[in-house]
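WARN no homologs supplied; continuing
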Amino acid sequence: METPLIRRAMAQDAAPLARVMAAAYAPFALTIPDLPDVTSGLDHDIADHLVWVAIAGQTLIGGLVAIRMSSGLHIANLAVHPRAGGQGIGLRFMQTAETFARSENLIMLTLATHPKMPKNVQFYEKLGWAVTKTSPNKIVMAKRL
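OK structure emitted
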């Protein structure tokens, strides 16, 4: 299998990215009633923020939405289609965001995940992230660059 291409998202990627995010979050929707809607507004995210997508062949299989802050980059969403999991795409997305942040002389990466998604926390901790705040429905994490 060829290595998926990661590139900046274009306007026409909004609908396929929404389908990927819906598929990626579907297993959690059953057990996390306060899970926010991750599929709406992607067209605005693509226009206004930093969005990267992963493409395998002609198929969009993942995406990362990041929001530039004054001194950092906030990872607003990271999703990989379940059928494409385990290929290192999430890692490549995080490396892409970190490389971008460093190129812009940003000093901090932040994100939030849900306590009922412990694999997310483990994944980010392996990449050098630390938990900075917890609440019943949110775990905030950061990585200093």
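The radius of gyration is 14 Å.
OK
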